[in-house]
Amino acid sequence: MKVAIAGGGSVGTAIASDLRSNGHDVLLIEKDPDLVERLRPSLDITWVAADACEVASLDAAGMGMVDVAVAATGDDEDNLVISLLAKQEFAVPRVVARVNHPKNQWLFNESWGVDVSVSTPALMTALVEEAVSVGSLVRLLKFEGGNVHLVEVTLAEDSPARDASLAQLQLPRSATVVAVLRDEHLVVPRGDTVLSAGDEVILLATGDCEDDVQRLLVGR
Hints:
Elements: E1 2-6, H1 10-21, E2 25-30, H2 33-39, E3 46-49, H3 55-61, E4 68-71, H4 76-88, E5 94-99, E6 116-119, H5 120-132, E7 137-143, E8 148-154, H6 166-169, E9 175-182, E10 185-187, E11 200-206, H7 210-217
Parallel strand pairs: 1-2, 1-4, 2-3, 4-5, 5-6
Antiparallel strand pairs: 7-8, 8-11, 9-10, 9-11
């Protein structure tokens, strides 16, 4: 897979290093030429010293040939512009954008070319809630401009889903159980999988069916 990353800061270079270690072809675009020259010897990827907010720079760097674009700069305005250009000008199939300030989260949607937005504060909040919340629905990640969520529910003792199989729950068609964590072990979900109190149920669900998911797994 060929990945283009805009932003040579700590976030961008960490992503680039991990992807390179996993065997992917990585292109990193950073507008500070001195930073590029300083980091080039430490990371064996393709480096481009250019402004990723300019169409000509992205074109020269080969943005039209990548499978995934990552806008990882420390500026939300730049990340929005980069995402929009990647999607509209170069038809990049998958665009991932970093959200630096939570107040700007609402902007990072398909209107700006963003397929997946990642907000570190929001993610940390979700992970804290996931660790301490029993009997409530917690959003972990957002996809498709925020319309699809990865959610988690730790079943309480009085959960209506306790001792019921996934088939018996009759979840909405737009919600899918992707994993069940039980006693620190992964249970691959099947129709005959019976849920127990304490199970961590992880689902992909659209926003319009979350109320139904909550009703079935948490209750009212």
